[in-house]
Amino acid sequence: MGFPTSPWGLLSPFLTLHLLRLGSADFIVVGPSRPLLATMGQDVVLPCHLSPRMDARGLEIRWIRHKLSETVHLYRNGADQQWDQMEEYAGRTELARDGLSRGSLDLRISGLRPSDDGQYVCTVHDGASYGEDTVELEVAALGSVPFLSLEAYEDGGIRVVCRSAGWYPSPQVLWKDAGGQHLPSVSLRRSPDERGLFEIQDVIVVSGKGDGNVSCVVRNSRLDQEQASSLHISAPFFHNARPWMAALGVFLLLLVMCFGVIAYLFRRKVVQCIAWAWKKILLPQNPEVVTLDPNTAHSKLFLSEDLRSVKRGSAHQNLPDTPERFSYWPCVLGQERFREGRHCWEVEVKGEVGGYSWWAVGVTRESVERKESELPSPAVGVWAVWHVFGQFEALTSPRTPLSLSLVPRRIWVCLDCTWGLVTFLNADTGGEIFTFPPASFHGEILRPWFRVETEETQLCLRGSIP
């Protein structure tokens, strides 16, 4: 008996065996028909189930990355198997155990990163039976509000630069004039940072035509959201946009920038004046002594004996669930209570400050909710800044992105009960990080507020104890 010599003859036995194997399956694996969209830093559930619905507790369930063919999560012999898991997913994945008996194969991934973007394959083995389906995950991040600056005179016009950071995937950049017409870019640079988030720097040259108003719009098409900033360039700039008058042009540029600062201060009025006073008057002095209140600390937070530092542990402590204790978010309050006057205390962030650390400092009303999952903002009585998975933000509503270059190791938290101001300063440089718009505290008691989500970070209170 001869052997087949054609390519089809050689492949035919293997295809037949493969089809027989697929045909022997008693189930099929079903994933979503559309890609899933999730925001960086959040948790996401990749849905997948067996059809018909059946008990999956005795099956081998493996989630893998489509292109890498490496294991994201493995469930076998009724337990999770971590020896074969990709390092970047260690401690970040969880199979929905309560749904296994109903054929649910859902996988939760916590703390999304840009590197999590892409296709995942849900595979199921049961002896000779096998099934799989693909889940497409799209990760997105909304970056910072663009910062516009005048750089120099160029080609008879003025060079304007737009900078923004913290985007994923790489965003679209669009320039517009006062009439909404698009302006051509002369240089666009996109570069990922160490976290995989994109920074952009785009340049246009504005001539003297029109009224000198330009806008830079940076857009995330996945989220269908954008950030924009505008800039007005006064007419005298264009009259001097000639090489032989460069020195005079620079002088005028600085002069107009000074006028812009004055106008900005005028709009902010008392808010900016007081923030400036904090930097000039309070910063050189010693901070107030603040200690942590152990009766408010979440059970996963560990306080030092002197109540001056806090870090997060991996397990809950056996603590009484009293009304004043935080039981949802890992938070703790300062023991000090403020109702009037001005106060300022220093917090040092030890260990991991940037990267994938998650910590927050600020001020809260004493009546703040401690048992529910309310997101911190002035609306619920919290004025704070936080660093979360590579993003630095003021917890306004919506949140205000802050430049990662502002992330300090030492922060001054300054509270003015009279004017209703909460200001954050870099204790090393005296530079302002953020000032919240004036609030009405209505004479309510305010307390220092701290939150630690990652074990690699420790918050320490500074100030000399008499």
Description:
- By secondary structure, the chain is mainly beta.
- The chain has helices at 7-23, 235-239, 246-268, 270-282, and strands at 28-30, 36-39, 44-46, 49-51, 60-65, 71-76, 79-81, 93-95, 107-109, 118-126, 129-140, 147-154, 157-167, 172-177, 182-183, 187-192, 198-206, 213-220, 225-232, 301-303, 309-312, 331-333, 342-351, 358-365, 382-388, 391-394, 400-402, 410-416, 421-426, 432-435, 446-452, 457-462.
- The strands form seven sheets. The protein has a seven-stranded antiparallel beta sheet with strand order 20-21-32-23-28-29-30, with helices on one face.
- The radius of gyration is 28 Å and the shape is flat.
- The relative contact order is 0.10.
Q: List the uncertain runs.
A: 1-24, 236-250, 264-284
Rg measurement, Å: 28 Å
| Average of pLDDT | 82
Strand content: 35-45%
Q: Helical content, roughly?
A: 10-25%
Bulk shape? flat
- Count of separate DSSP helical elements: 4
Number of strands: 32
Q: Numbering strands along the chain, what is their spatial order in the largest sheet?
A: 20-21-32-23-28-29-30
| N-to-C CA distance | 100 Å
Q: What does the main sheet amount to? A: 7 strands, antiparallel
Brief overview:
This protein is mainly beta. It contains 4 helices and 32 strands. Residues 1-24, 236-250 and 264-284 have low confidence and may be disordered.
Any chance you could write out the topology, listing elements then pairs?
Elements: H1 7-23, E1 28-30, E2 36-39, E3 44-46, E4 49-51, E5 60-65, E6 71-76, E7 79-81, E8 93-95, E9 107-109, E10 118-126, E11 129-140, E12 147-154, E13 157-167, E14 172-177, E15 182-183, E16 187-192, E17 198-206, E18 213-220, E19 225-232, H2 235-239, H3 246-268, H4 270-282, E20 301-303, E21 309-312, E22 331-333, E23 342-351, E24 358-365, E25 382-388, E26 391-394, E27 400-402, E28 410-416, E29 421-426, E30 432-435, E31 446-452, E32 457-462
Parallel strand pairs: 2-11
Antiparallel strand pairs: 1-4, 3-9, 5-6, 5-10, 6-7, 8-9, 10-11, 12-13, 13-17, 14-15, 14-18, 16-17, 18-19, 20-21, 21-32, 22-31, 23-28, 23-32, 24-25, 24-31, 25-26, 26-27, 28-29, 29-30
